[in-house]
C-alpha cells in the first residue's frame, strides 16, 4: 500500500506543486536554481568538434473493419494518377498499367505512381518471449542491426538478472540493483546482450550521431542532466556523463540539426532548450535558453512534455507543444513563425498523441530553393483527460482523439488539413514505412498516459496512405495483434521492412497481475507489402557493388538483382533515419525519397544499376547513417543497405 502511494505521488505531485521553498524537490541538488537562466553564449561556444557528440569525418474499409486472416490477399498492379494529392485541386484519372509516365514516387516527374495492390492486411508473430526489459525506449542501431531497448533504473527490477558483478549501487543507499535495465537484441536471431546502466534513463531522449553512435540525454533523478553514449561494437557499453546538461531533461525531446549538432527541448519544469555539449564537456546556466512556448502551452496537467520537434528542410526547427507550433531559427535562437492552433484537444504528454515528418521527396539534379516538408499529427486526448483518469476518483477514461492533422512546415501560410481516423487513439506510435506510407500502431482508445490511466487497447494498426488519387479513403485498418501495447510501447522499422513492436508498461515497476501486465514480449508485424503474393517484386541489393558512403549532392550507384525485366517507372528508392522511440515520440525519424538520375539495365543477368543523387545538404538529411530501400511496385527490397551521408 505504501509503495503504491509513493509511485502515485511521484506522478501527481509534480503536476500540483512546482517548487517547494524555491527548490524543485524531484531533482538532486545540482539542479537547484538551474531554471534561473543567465543568457546564452551563442552556437560558436558549442562548436568544438562540431558542437555535437561525434568525431571523425564529418483504403480504410468504409465500415472501418479489418479483414480477418493472415493469408496472402488478391493482388493486382494498378497505376494511380497523382494529379490530386491531399488538397490539390488538379483532377486526374486512372490509367492503364502500360502508362509510360514516370511515377511521382521516384522523383523524376509528377506523373503516375505504380504499385501492387493487395487485400493482405498484415500478419503478426511473437519474435522473443522475454526481452528481459520492457522497451520504454527503442532504437535500431546502424550497421550492427541490433535493437537497443531500455527502461528505467528506478524500478530496481526487471525480468533479467545481470550476468555477474558488479551490480549497480543505488544512490544514497547501501542497496544493490543486480537487474538488467538495458539490452541489445539482434533483430534476426533475437540474441540478447545485457548492458549496464548507472544513471536513470526513465523518460529520456536520444539521437544517432554522424558515426551511428547513440547519444542519449536526460532521464530521472541522477540521470536527468546526464548525457550517455553507446558506440557500435561487440563489447561496447554505455559511457555516462552526469551533470553534462544545464537543466534536468525529464520528458524532453532531442533533435539533430543539419550540421550534426543536437538540441534538446523541454523537460518537466524546465521550459528551456540547450545544445548538447561535445563529449566530455558540460553545459552551464549560460548555455540554457528560455523558451516561452513551453510556458504558454503548459496546462494544469502539462500536456506539453515530449514536444514534437523536427528539423525542416530550410534549417529551421519545428516545435509543436500541446496545440501550438512554431518555427525556430537555431542559429539566432529566434522564433520566425507561429502556425495556426491545432484544435480538438491536446497532443503531447500526457494527452499523448503521436506525430511524424512525412516523406521528403527529392528530384534528380535537385535545384529547388524550398523542399516541401510536412508534419502529420494523429490522436491525443482532451485537455483534462489526465485529470479525469489519474486525479479523479472514481477514474474517468475520456475518449481519445480520432483525427489526424497535416501541415506543410515550409509554408508561412500553411494551414492544418484535418481528417478522421477509423478509431480513436492515444499512446500510439507512427512508423514511416519504406514506401512513404505511415503505420499507426499501438496505444489505447480512452484515457491518458500515466499509471493505469488508459483503457480499451487499440489492437488494430492503421495504414495511412501518404499519396492517393483523391478518391477513396486514406486509411486501411489492418489485422490486430492480441497483445495490448499501451503506455510505454515502442517500435522500430527493420532492414527487411517488418516492424518490431515492443514495450507496454502501465505500472510503476514490473507487475504480472495488473490489468495490463508489464510486457516483455517482442513482436514483428509484416505490413501489407509483405503479402506472399508480392514476393516476386522484392529486389535484392548487391551491397558489395553499391556505394555505401557519399557526400552531399554527389551521385551514388545501387545495384539490384531480381526476377525478370525491371520497369524504371515502378522503382522508388528511399533512405530512412532510425528514430529514438519513446512515449509516442519518434525523435529524428526521417524518410527521404532520392531522385533517380540514371537506370542502367542488365549490367549482368537480372541485374541493374540505379544511379541516384544524394541529398544536397544536411538540412534535408542530417549527417549519419540511413537505411536505403529499393521499392519495386510498392514492395520493399529483401534487405535494406546502410548508407552514410557526409558533409
From TrEMBL:
Residues 136-529 form the Glyoxal oxidase N-terminal domain. Residues 547-644 form the Galactose oxidase-like Early set domain. Residues 1-22 form the signal peptide. It holds the Pfam family Glyoxal_oxid_N. InterPro entries: Gal_Oxase/kelch_b-propeller, Gal_Oxidase_central_sf, Glyoxal_oxidase_N, GO-like_E_set, Ig-like_fold, Ig_E-set. Keywords: Signal. This is Galactose oxidase-like Early set domain-containing protein. It comes from Gossypium barbadense (Sea Island cotton).
